[in-house]
Amino acid sequence: xxxxxxxxxxxxxxxxxxxxxxxxxxxxxxxxxxxxxxxxxxxxxxxxxxxxxxxxxxxxxxxxxxxxxxxxxxxxxxxxxxxxxxxxxxxxxxxxxxxxxxxxxxxxxxxxxxxxxxxxxxxxxxxxxxxxxxxxxxxxxxxxxxxxxxxxxxxxxxxxxxxxxxxxxxxxxxxxxxxxxxxxxxxxxxxxxxxxxxxxxxxxxxxxxxxxxxxxxxxxxxxxxxxxxxxxxxxxxxxxxxxxxxxxxxxxxxxxxxxxxxxxxxxxxxxxxxxxxxxxxxxxxxxxxxxxxxxxxxxxxxxxxxxxxxxxxxxxxxxxxxxxxxxxxxxxxxxxxxxxxxxxxxxxxxxxxxxxxxxxxxxxxxxxxxxxxxxxxxxxxxxxxxxxxxxxxxxxxxxxxxxxxxxxxxxxxxxxxxxxxxxxxxxxxxxxxxxxxxxxxxxxxxxxxxxxxxxxxxxxxxxxxxxxxxxxxxxxxxxx
Amino acid sequence: xxxxxxxxxxxxxxxxxxxxxxxxxxxxxxxxxxxxxxxxxxxxxxxxxxxxxxxxxxxxxxxxxxxxxxxxxxxxxxxxxxxxxxxxxxxxxxxxxxxxxxxxxxxxxxxxxxxxxxxxxxxxxxxxxxxxxxxxxxxxxxxxxxxxxxxxxxxxxxxxxxxxxxxxxxxxxxxxxxxxxxxxxxxxxxxxxxxxxxxxxxxxxxxxxxxxxxxxxxxxxxxxxxxxxxxxxxxxxxxxxxxxxxxxx
Lengths: 480, 249
Fold this sequence. Notes:
CATH class of the largest domain in chain B: Mainly Alpha
Number of domains of chain B: 2
Shape of chain A: globular
Structural class of chain B: mainly alpha
Oligomer: heterodimer
Shape of chain B: rod-shaped
Number of strands of chain B: 0
Radius of gyration of chain A: 22 Å
Order of helices and strands of chain B: HHHHH
C-alpha cells in the first residue's frame, strides 16, 4: 500500500469536513459570535491545514488498488470521527474526550445516540456542527465509496457484495459516475425539500436545516432535549415521518420512481415489504398502546408510527418516551431496530434486502426438502439470487447478531441493566440511536460506563461500515 | 508546486497552527481577566451594597422604635444616618447593575423604600407622635417586603457570581484546549511532514545520486522515475538527457 496516496485522499476528506466547520462558524457569526466560535475556528484551521499538507506534497493519481481503496474508505470514517471530536472538546461544557468521541462517532455514523444531558446548553453553532456530522456521514457512506468506484475495480464487489440484492442491481445498471450523481441529487433534493416544508410549517431556518440533515441522513440528532416532541407540531412530525420513510428507501429506486416515473418499482419485493411492514407494525403498536398509554387509537397511531419509523429507518428521533411501553411494542421496536431499512439508503441495520433474501432462501429450502431432486433456485422478483450471495447474507446476519449479543454481554459485565445493554447494542450497531430502559427515546447514554461507550462507538463504526469494511483491516490477509 | 514552496508551506502550516493557538489563548485569557474583574467589582460590590441596605433598614427601624420610645433626638439621628447609608448603598448598587432584571429589582426597592418613608411621615407627621401599634400596623409589612427584595438582590448577584465561576472554569478549559491540540497537532504534523520530506524530497535525491554513481561506475543505464512535477523531476530528466548526450567511451 502506498501511504502517500492514502494521505492524499485523507487530505480531501479533511478538507470536506473543514468546509462544514467553516459553515458552522458562519452560523456562530450569524448568532452574534456565540460560545462555539473559537472552538470551530481553531478546529477549522487544524483540519484544513492537515488536509492541505498531503495535497501539497503528494501528486494526483487516479489509480488505486483494492486494498488502498478499502483502507481509504474505512480510514476516512475513523479520521472524520477523530477530527469531529475537535469542536466538542474545544468547546468544553460537560463533554470529556470519551464523550466527544462517542458524540462524534454517533454523528458521522448517523446513529444519533447522545451522551448530552442538556442538548440545549450547547451553542447553536456547535449544534449545527453536530447536525452537519450526520449529513456528512449520510452522504459519505453513499457518495464517498461511489467516488472510489471508478478506480477500485473489484473492490466494488467486495464492498457491496452483501448489498447486491436484485433491487441493488437495478441501480448498478448505471455507470458508477452516473450512480454517484443520482445518489447525490436525491440526497440534496430530499434535504432541500424537507427544509422548505419544515419552514413552511412553523420551524425556524436553524431547526428546519438541522432536523432535515438528521432526517435525510437517518441520524436523529435534535437540537432540543425533548427531540421532535419539543415542537408539538403535527404537520412537522408528518413531514419528518415521510422523509424518514423516503430516506430509508434505495436512492436509485427513488430516482427511478420520481425522475423516470417507474412507479411500478415500488411493487418490487423489498420496497413493498418495507412499506407494508412499517404500516402493519405501526398499527399493531397503536393497538398495543391503546388503553395503557393513550385513550384514542389515532393518538396512539400518531406516536407509535413515529417511533416505529424512527427505529425502522435507523433515524432515532422521538415524539414520545418509550420508557414503560408494553413489552410487545418494545419487541416490535427491537425487531425494526435490528432490521432497519433498504440497502442503497443512508440507513443502517441488517437491512430489508437481506431479510427478504433470507426469507426467500428459507422458503426455498423448505420446498427443496419436499422435492430433494428438483433444482429450485432462490428467486427475488423473478431474478435468481446466486448461492454465494445467499450464504453471504446469512453470514452477515449471524455475524451482526453475534456482535450485538457479545457487546450486550460486555455491557452487562460492567453493570449495565440487561434491557439497556441489549437495546443499546442493537441501537448502536444498527445506527438507530435510542434504546429502551435507561437509554430510551428521551434519555441519553450518559449513564453507560466509559468502557461501554468505547464498545458502543465501535459498534456504530462496525454497523456503518457493514462489519466487513472495518474488520477486513484487522485481518492478516489484508496486510500480506 | 516547486520544492521551495512545498517546504515553506509545510513550515507555514505549523506556524499558523501555533500562531492561531497562541492568539486564541491570549484572547481567552483576556476574557478570563474580564470575568474575574466582573466577579470582584460588580457582583461583590452589589452584594456588599445589598448587605449595607439591609443594615441601614434595620438601623432605621431601630431609630423609629427610639422615637416611639420617646427618645426622639437619638431616634431621628439614627433615622437620618441610616437613610443616608441606604441611599449611598443604593446608588452603589445602581452603579454596578450587571445581572438581567437587577435594574427592575432596584427600581422596586427604591419605590418600596420611598413608600415606607412616606408612611412614616404620614403617620408620625412633624410631631413624631407614633405608637408601637401604629408602627407595627403601617410599617411592618412594608419593611418585611423591602428586606425580602434586598435579600433577592444579594441572591441574584451570588447566583451570577456562581455562574461566572462556572464560566471561568469553561473559559479556562477553552484556553488550555488550543494549547493541548496545538501540542498534539504539532507532533503529528512533524511526523507527517518528516514522512513527506523524506518520501518526496530526500528519497528522490538519494535515488538520483545512486543512479548517477551507478552510471559513472558501471555504465548502468540511468532510470529514475520521479512522480512529482517539481525541480527534482526536472533535474532527473535533465541528468537523463545529459547522460544520453555523452559520447560512449
